[in-house]
Design a protein that fits this description.
binds fructose -6-phosphate, 17% strand, 8 helices, 3-stranded antiparallel sheet, alpha/beta, 34% helix, Rossmann fold
């Protein structure tokens, strides 16, 4: 695991964008694994800028998102479908049929997990997976306790995750209780993984991650089992590790 510590969120976002653009330039048919949430917003802004001012094209790129809330319509303002369209897809030249996100309102949840698993097998493997990290160590929505062999599955979101994500809803009651997520096994099949973290509220999670104890109680620790992971953090997220040095 390579760790890059940068001054602030802006620098983290720029470096992540540079790495993504490098991969897209090497392979215009790249399969990108994408995350939502507040962390990758700066990355997506930089990618939009790269498309508009540096001539980076996504015409043949495919994207596979990590997760979607269960129970939200595609066009719900807080669905991850809406997030991806508003924050990235509508601003670049990606073909919408090349973007994949689980359906949050499937008629059968089981069938939807199986369908998304097929998407992974048909479109994947993911060449470059972008991850954020939950304050409880989740990646995707793989909450503590997740089996390392897990594939696409339904999860009950932890109270702490629902609290963290309540900022995007009117109240915590509105935050969905369940989500569909790629599993740990799917994530670890990616050729390369970049995990981004910024801000003091991620400092504890980054400290635990870098302690290198691989355990189901902290799912991001499974990343130690992957040969090509780069963690890009800012000084605020790295502060508890610095304190120990
Ligand atoms: C979202 C996802 C989650 C987030 C994590 C951090 O697609 O996979 O694991 O990356 O919850 O969220 P933020 O970035 O909002 O702190």
């Amino acid at each position: 695991m390579k760790v890059i510590v940068l001054a602030d969120y802006e620098a983290v976002s720029k470096e992540a964008a540079r790495l993504v653009e490098e991969k897209v330039s090497e392979n215009d048919q790249l399969v990108l694994g994408l995350a939502t949430g507040s962390t990758p917003l700066g990355l997506y802004e930089n990618l939009i800028d790269g498309y508009k001012t540096r001539g980076i094209s996504y015409q043949n790129v495919k994207t596979i998102n990590l997760d979607e809330y269960l129970g939200l319509e595609k066009d719900h303002p807080e669905s991850y479908h809406t997030f991806m369209v508003e924050k990235l897809f509508k601003h670049i030249d990606i073909a919408r049929e090349n973007t994949f996100i689980p359906d949050g309102q499937p008629s059968s949840i089981e069938a939807e997990c199986a369908r998304y698993e097929k998407v992974m097998n048909r479109v994947g493997p993911i060449n470059l997976q972008i991850l954020g990290i939950g304050s409880n160590g989740h990646i995707g929505f793989n909450e503590p306790g997740t089996d390392p062999e897990s594939e696409t599955h339904v999860v009950e979101l932890n109270d702490s995750t629902r609290k963290d994500n309540a900022q995007f809803f009117n109240s915590i009651e509105e935050v969905p209780t369940h989500a569909i997520t790629l599993g740990i096994q799917n994530i670890l099949k990616s050729d390369k993984i970049i995990l981004l973290a910024s801000g003091k509220k991620k400092a504890e999670a980054i400290k635990i991650l870098l302690e290198k104890n691989v355990s189901a109680s902290f799912p991001a620790s499974y990343l130690w089992n992957h040969p090509n992971v780069t963690v890009i953090v800012d000084e605020d997220a790295y502060q508890l590790v610095r304190q120990k040095q």
